[in-house]
Each structure stands twice: as C-alpha cells, then as structure tokens.
Amino acid sequence: MIKSTISNDTGHNRHKSFDIAVDTMGGDLGPSAVVEGAFRAAAKYPHVHMKLVGPQDMLQYEIKKYPQLSNISILHAPDVIMPNETPTIAIREKKTSSIVVGLRAVKLGEAQGFVSAGSTGALLTGATVIIGREKGIERPALGTLLPTATGFTLLLDCGANMDCKPSYLAQFGQIGAEYMQRVMGISNPRVGLINVGAEDEKGNEAAKEAFPLLAASNLNFIGNIEGREILADAVDVAVCDGFTGNVVLKFAEGFVKTLLGMIKTELLATTRTKLGAMLAKPAFAKIKTRMDYREIGGAPFLGLKSLVIKAHGSSDALAIQNAIRQCVTFVENTKSED
Amino acid sequence: MIKSTISNDTGHNRHKSFDIAVDTMGGDLGPSAVVEGAFRAAAKYPHVHMKLVGPQDMLQYEIKKYPQLSNISILHAPDVIMPNETPTIAIREKKTSSIVVGLRAVKLGEAQGFVSAGSTGALLTGATVIIGREKGIERPALGTLLPTATGFTLLLDCGANMDCKPSYLAQFGQIGAEYMQRVMGISNPRVGLINVGAEDEKGNEAAKEAFPLLAASNLNFIGNIEGREILADAVDVAVCDGFTGNVVLKFAEGFVKTLLGMIKTELLATTRTKLGAMLAKPAFAKIKTRMDYREIGGAPFLGLKSLVIKAHGSSDALAIQNAIRQCVTFVENTKSED
Known about the structure:
alpha/beta, homodimer, 11 helices, 11 strands, eleven-stranded mixed β-sheet
C-alpha cells in the first residue's frame, strides 16, 4: 500500500539555513568548473552553506580565485573514485573519496543534500548504502527531466534498477510525484505507467501488477501511457523499470543527434536551404537551450532520506549551479516533520 | 545453440512465380487504397500473383476500376476482425475473416507471404497459430526498420513478446539478421543486444543471459549497444524484448512530433526565422520522405514459416505496394531448400 507523503504546502524551510555538499572531483571538466558553479550558487542562496568536497590543498587554491564568501567551506577528501571501478568495492574501500565523504556528511546531518558529477554507479550504490532509503521505499530510482512542448516530464527509473518488482514501480510513482511537487512546483502531479497500450491488462508482468498498486494509491494516477505520450504533456511523472528508462533516455540522446545531423546535411545541400538555415538560426538556438541539460540541472536520485543529484559528467559551472538549485528547492519544500 | 541459416546467395527464386495474399480489410483508408497498392505491385512484379482477400462482391467492384491484370485474383472473405476484438477469440471464431482466410492460404501453400493493415493483435496471434513458427524459433517477433543517417536499423521485438526468455532474444538476432540479408541485401548483418552499457555483465537478467547465447552463435554479434547507438549506424539489427522495443518505437514517434512542433513554433516566432523556414523547406521535405513509413514499408513479423507484413493502419497505396515489395524480396531471396 502506498501512502503519498505529498503536501500542498511549500516553502516550509525557506530562508532557514542549511548545507549542501558538492563533490568537486569526478567531473570531466575538473574541479574548477564545479567550484565556480558552487560559488555562483553560494552568491545566489546566501542562507545555504556550500561544502566543497575534495582534496583540501587543491580546493584552497581554487577558492582563492573568488572573493571570499562566508557560506563556502571545504570538506577534505583526498581520494577519488574512478568511473571504471566496481561501485560496491570502491564505496567500501575508498573511505576518504569525495563521494563517500560527501555522502557521510549527509548521513551525519552535516549536509541536507549532495551534488556529484562523478561515477554514477558509485554514487547510486554509495547513496543507498550510506544515506539509506526513505521510509517505505524499497529501491531508490534515478530520475531525468525531459523537456516537453510546455514543461517537463520526470522519467524514472533511468537505470538504477534493472529488473523491478511491481511494488518498486508503484513507489517510483510516489517519489517521482514528490519531486515534481517539491522542486518543480507542480500541484497534484499526474503519474503515468509506461506500457505498450492504454488498457490496464496490457504489458509485461511487472507493469500489469504495478497498475492496480498505482490505481489504489493516493497518487494522481492517470493509467498506462504509451511511449509516444512520454513527451506529450500527458503526465508529469512517467514510471518504468530502469532498463526501459535507460534505453529510452539514451535513445532520445542519439535520436536528437541523428535528426539534427540529417537536418544539417540537408540544409547544407543547396544555396537556397543554406540561406534559409542562416536566417532560421535563432529558432534552432532557442530549441537547443530548451534541450540543454545544463539549464535543467542534474538527475535526481530519489527515494533516499536526503536528495542526491547526479550531475552530468561534463557539467560546467552553470550545470552545477542548477544541480545545487534542485537540492536547495527540494530542502526548502520539505516539511520539517519528514 | 543458434545456427544461422543465412546464405550469401541471393535471388534463388527470382522470376519464379509465386503468390502473395493481401488483406483488403482493416486499413484505415478502406479497401480501395489497398486494392490500388496491390494493382501497382502486380504491374511491377508480373511474375507475382496478388490474391486480394476480402468480400467478393466489393472486391469485384473495386478491381473494375483498373485495366485487367492476369496476376490479380480474389480470395473471398466476407468477415473482418475489428481492432477492439480479443485476438485469440477472434481468430478462433471468425474463420471467414480476411486475416484468417489470408493466413490459411499461406498455411496451405496457396500464398508465400501475407500483407495486412488490420488488427495487430489478431494478425500476430493468427500468424503464429495458423502459419506456425520457423524451425528452432520459440517466439516470432515484430520488427521495425528505423532510418539512420546512412541506412536502416531493424529494431525487434517491437511488441509481440513482453517478458522474454534469453533464448528468445538470441533467436530475435537470428531472424532479424536473416531479414536484413534477404530483404535489405546486407551481407553479414551486424547484430547488437540493446542494453544499459557496453560491458557484457550489464543489464537485466534476460539481457545478461542472452549475451553469451548471441556470442556463441554464428551471427555477426557485435555485443551490447546502448539506446543512443540504435540509430548510430552501429548495427543492422538491434535486439530487445517486445516491451522495451515497443516503448522505444512509440517514443520515437512522439519525439519526432514534439521536436518538429518545437521547431515549427520557433520558426514562426519572427519574420526572419519565418523567411528562413520558407527557404529551408526543401531540406525538411527530404527528411520527411526519409522518415516516411510509406516508403519503408510495413513491419515484418519474423520467425514464421512464411513472411507476414503488418502494414501501418493508415497505409495508402504506396505503403501497401512497398509492404508487398518486402514479401516479394523475401521470397525471392529464400533458398528453395528452406
């Protein structure tokens, strides 16, 4: 049985001070991009304290590039987990890695959220083991905000759980709806179950059994949705297993690339279309911005006792700033008794 | 253990005469579009006999619209299966429906392939029950040809099988490769297993266990591919369970619509971009043609003793003509001893 813990009240903790831990290691652009993003966020949210997690000496050097801010400090973590390491082993053995140190700060209440652009596997494993699951949630899930014509759909799970029990899927609906309400300000978010048809008896075994669980929950469950409805502004939360979600998400990335490649080739084919392309450029620039993950922020890892944001590996300062914003908004809209 | 039955020889049956059954009922545009498509195909392939399946009186009226052709005839089927009927019941009870009559003609050797734009569920169920499976294939699968920058990827299964055993997935690789060789003329087609990462231990249970089966087969198995590689010209055949394939396929449909909608909105936003759009129009027209399912043909239902093509519900004459072409090419490139 699922109980929605969603409240229509927002802003409970607004302007209360709290801490966000930011992993400065593991991003493709190096620590300086992350530190710049953290400084931008620190300037924007003076009531939020940013804890930069990484090697002390290096970070002391980096922060000297900026005017001093009272809400920036360093949490020393000399080690780093590389993407090719086995997550379970790395989390167990690298106690002084930036991911483990950051997650432990959250566990100990020294930070209320964590942002990392490091190894996805290590972050998901570490977060589940160290921070622990939200009450009533069997498996945390990785969400991704996909831009639609008028807003966003939160697709989850995007890869944390391969084979899912029906109860996991139903809980993904719950944690996804909580996120869309708290962070995106959507009241009574519409939750859809990704499936191969609208009828409730359709689908694979997990989806068929998840349907009645979602229907019996307090969620605003609108039923099964097909693949074409994921981006059709039909739902705010689209639920599926992590295998399907990961394939769809990466397919979308590849598809944009293929389609834009085709458009480019055809536009450059004649003088007329070349001129057209030149004039149409501002329109394409706007679409690019709308699709830009840096504007959207990172992928929320939901169903934990605190929010963890997996920032894109190639995150720049803007992407990090927006990932921190996601944590700030989540904490501000969390009821104190949670 | 999978044995590839692919041969590098092609055209074994070229110019031998054979029959294709064409369901004239069930398409959204009515029988006249299907009949027109069949007449076009009959003119193009004079050695292939088209059997129009449907109500005799109506078809006699329809064919009078065209100059007489010796390779067109009627197979009387007074009944039709509607999309809302339960497939298993409809196939059992509607013995004189166009789908059952057409499939029985194939079963009896009176036709070597079948094209239908009717109910997908009834067609898949009926084809499996009436025509029967190819030797060594446990479950037939529905394929879809997706356009890439330089060619096509056959995605299968697109919805015939929800929960798949590893052996099903491995067999999808085999029947997909056969199709790409026979119909698309690709020698030694590259087969990829859709998964969440390149490493062979990744994925859900079915994919993890399918990997060694595919690796041990005679297929040109290139390993796991991620969602973004489906359209990247990395493989000729992309294998997954029917749940994932169906979601990806429909997501692609919805995504094109969303993206083109965004592009249109932005292009119409200013006079400059409007002018640009006008000039760039021929480029977009070319891409539209490349994405047009009518040019590509229907979805092959593979792994049966004969080929069945599920034509799009809204198929026009061109789409039907191309679906018939798929059957013709398949039969022509099938070795006589098969």
